[in-house]
Amino acid sequence: MLLIAGDSLAAGHIGIGFTRYLTIDAEQQIMLRGIDGDTMLGVTSRVLKYLGSSRITEVIDALIIECGGNDVLLPKVITSGGEEAQAAAKTLIRSETPPLDTPKEFGRQYALQLDRILARWEELGLQADHVAIVLIPLLGEELDSHVNALRVSYNEEIRTLAHQRSLTVLDFALDAFLRSQPKQHSGFLLENPQDCLLDAQLIGGDPEAADRLSDQRGLLLTTDGIHLNSRGARLASRQCGEFLHRTGYSPT
After folding, report:
1. Domains identified in the chain and CATH numbers
2. Phi, psi for 142 (deg, rounded to 5)
3. Rounded distance, CA 131 to CA 86, Å?
4. Band (252; pLDDT cuts 50, 70, 90)
5. Three-state SS for 167?
6. What is the pLDDT of residues 77-116, one digit of tens each?
7. Which residues of 212-231 are buried (b: 16+ CB within 10 A; e: fewer)?
8. CA distance 99 to 14
């Protein structure tokens, strides 16, 4: 069984989750554990909890960890957003798993969490090359923005800690796609986390509805600068293909 632990991009309640288009043999299974608004500490702490559950560890053989976007975004909203946006962002933060608002501290804490996860993984007799971690995807489709520059710094930390541990890094390749397009990308970026609920109700998990919203906002890969539309979700899922094939998850 493949375990995918992440935030809203994995959960797919807002926009279209990248996991929607992962195709594997019918007898194989994906256990999806995505929570909207979760931080790196939240996601990795949950992974450790899952690996302590005999119900899960009896069947798990591969792991994908997707997190980090909220570590960049939530502090940004709290420091520079309007009052309603700040209040909404604060409701998403749990005291025991706060966002880490500098790349170095994020990398240091992520490394500690990964070492705990990998130690448990080894105890279970599972293969280290069956663990993959995802780079933080788009935070707005304007790649030259301040928040995307900060995201790049966080991703450098992720690449480094993954290389040090010989882990697979999954890049959804959304940046590369945008750079290949002649169209001027919209600067639309969700400002109030509470507005995600409105988008979720409007989209209702329907790829066509997600794409219509993207078109209205002048976006190519996301519905709000963050959460994926069908094109973004398909592109992201394809980037998982090589890892899935190597770990024995054959496409249907």
Report:
1. 2-246 (3.40.50.1110)
2. -90, 100
3. 35
4. low
5. coil
6. 999 889 999 998 999 999 999 999 999 999 999 999 999 9
7. ebbeebebbbbbbbbbbbbb
8. 20
